[in-house]
Design goal:
Elements (H helix, E strand, L loop, with lengths): L2 H4 L4 H12 L4 E4 L1 H7 L8 E4 L3 H7 L4 E3 L7 E5 L23 E5 L1 E4 L9 E4 L3 H6 L9 E3 L3 E3 L4 H7 L1 E2 L5 H7 L2 H13 L2 E2 L1 H9 L9 H13 L3 H7 L1 H7 L20 H11 L4 H9 L4 H4 L1 E2 L5 E2 L3 H15 L4 H13 L8 H11 L1 H16 L5 H22 L12 H6 L6 H15 L5
Parallel strand pairs: 2-5, 10-11
Antiparallel strand pairs: 1-2, 1-8, 3-4, 4-5, 6-7, 8-9, 12-13
Helix pairs in contact: 8-10, 8-11, 11-13, 13-14, 13-19, 14-17, 16-17, 18-19, 18-20, 19-20
The structure holds adenosine-5'-triphosphate and magnesium ion (MG).
């Protein structure tokens, strides 16, 4: 790996390093930006670690715009004056680099006394880079780099990077006990980077999985969403199912739930993992794919011929999805959206015109085309041959949805020529009955029985 060629920080980073060093402090690029640069990927943000204490950092940028949201933990963001606004993007009040126009500067830290398994009792500042690097989670995240001084790699991060390996800095069980979020971070980096997990680290994360129950639901949600959107999501979920089931116990019954039908060649869990893999890497679809058959184990019956049936599983999956997403503190909007995808994943194909118009009217165009993507992933994950047999029906539904939208057909009450006022003129009293009548008229229009 040629560090000099692969790492190109944005100008604001170089400028921040120069300013800190001009006052006699050390300053290095650290963490994800070093890892991603060495992998030849563009870092999403640039973190700078410095020996300067927060007040000293501030003095280096006197008179300039600073965001001190994380100052208690030593983090200050410098926003050079210019035309670009800055965005606060995460709940930890960390500042994102927008168009390369902000640098996040954190004082070298040590952490100690994790009595609640989720945050240090004390954050101490230190003047030592090596102490700061040694409190970081994984060897590939614990490297520092400087444009003139090169790479500091105290824990063989580069070697692990080349081998595609995630390994804790220090003793894994202790590091996971200090902060259980690292367990999920490990799984999500494995999924995002496609890296294997070193056996000692893997054993420790399995042993310490119960500590995940002490984490806030929001943090679990954020990590799981990143995990699900990674390239290696299915492989990680497969290999570390027991760890994932600790925080998502509703999914556990899927594993080993056989599907004795001609349409399936996997048990429910393995089918789910394939569906996750086929779904585009976006949060709503990956969550919907993960949850779409969660209701199957509870709905399994068998007919006299030995075939398994899962009647009524979509609404049951929807119920489980709603409960799980509520617990993980998804916004109501996201929860309702994913739950509706799950609840409709099995809608009959090809979709009839009235049904499609109902979906388009109720949930909108983006929802319906997202649902098609979910259905495509679902059928890709079934027995060989199912996809080829079912695809024409799906394409027909897609074409019909497009035609309905192009024609500008009546989809919502607002689209109807007839309004409540018209009904009032005809002598219908305003109130809930009028609403029901209007919806029945809309359905009749969508079935083509009224114009
Ligand atoms: P991403 O590209 O997702 O931002 P990242 O590696 O930058 O990846 P961050 O969550 O932004 O991840 O954290 C920045 C750095 O801080 C990490 O690379 C790691 O060195 C350190 N770090 C973050 N969270 C922890 C933690 N819980 N325990 C130990 N070190 C951590
Ligand atoms: Mg980062």
């Amino acid at each position: 790996m040629n560090q000099g060629l692969t790492i190109v920080p944005p100008p604001v980073v170089g400028e921040a390093l120069r300013r800190l060093e001009a006052r006699g402090f050390q300053a290095w690029c650290v963490g994800g930006c070093v890892r991603d640069s060495l992998l030849g990927k563009a870092p999403s943000d640039w973190d700078i670690a410095t020996s300067a204490l927060p007040q000293e950092t501030k003095a280096c940028f006197a008179g300039e715009r600073l965001v001190e949201a994380g100052a208690a933990h030593g983090t200050i963001a410098w926003v050079p004056s210019g035309d670009h606004p800055i965005e606060i993007t995460t709940f930890r009040s960390v500042t994102a680099v927008v168009d390369g126009h902000a640098a996040e500067i954190t004082t070298y830290r040590t952490e100690s006394g994790y009595s609640d398994f989720r945050r240090p009792d004390k954050v101490g500042f230190t003047r030592s880079l090596s102490e700061d690097l040694s409190r970081r989670d994984f060897t590939v995240n614990a490297m520092a780099w400087h444009p003139q001084r090169g790479l500091v790699d105290l824990f063989h991060g580069q070697e692990d990077l080349s081998a595609g390996l995630l390994r804790c800095v220090g003793e894994p069980a202790r590091r996971f006990s200090e902060d259980a979020l690292r367990i999920l971070r490990c799984l999500r980096f494995s999924s995002q980077l496609g890296f294997a997990i070193h056996p000692d680290t893997a054993r420790a994360l399995w042993e310490k999985r119960e500590l995940l129950l002490a984490l806030s639901h929001e943090r679990v949600r954020e990590e799981l969403t990143k995990l699900l959107c990674g390239q290696g999501a299915a492989a990680v979920l497969r290999q570390y199912a027991a760890v994932v089931f600790t925080v998502l116990p509703e999914l556990a019954p899927m594993k080993g739930c056989a599907q004795e039908t001609p349409y399936h060649c996997f048990d429910v869990w393995e089918h789910t993992l394939h569906a996750v893999d086929y779904a585009p890497q976006q949060g709503d679809l990956r969550w919907a794919a993960l949850l779409h058959d969660a209701g199957k184990p509870g709905r399994k019956t068998r007919s006299a011929d030995g075939m398994a049936h899962f009647y009524g599983h979509p609404p049951e999956s929807g119920r489980i999805a709603r409960q799980l997403l509520t617990r993980l503190r998804f916004s109501n909007k996201e929860r309702d959206w994913i739950t509706a995808l799950v609840g409709h994943h099995e809608d009959a194909m090809p979709m009839g015109e009235a049904h499609l118009k109902g979906l388009l009217g109720r949930y909108g165009e983006r929802f319906v085309f997202t649902l098609f993507q979910l259905q495509e992933a679902d059928m890709s994950a079934k027995a060989p041959g199912v996809f080829a047999r079912r695809l024409p029906d799906l394409e027909e539904s897609r074409a019909l949805a497009r035609a309905i939208l192009e024609r500008g057909d009546c989809l919502t009450l607002g689209d109807m020529a007839l309004t409540g006022e018209d009904l009032k003129a005809l002598g219908v009293a305003p109130g809930p009955e009028m609403g029901k009548l209007l919806r029945r008229l809309l359905e009749a229009v969508q079935r083509g029985e009224a114009a």
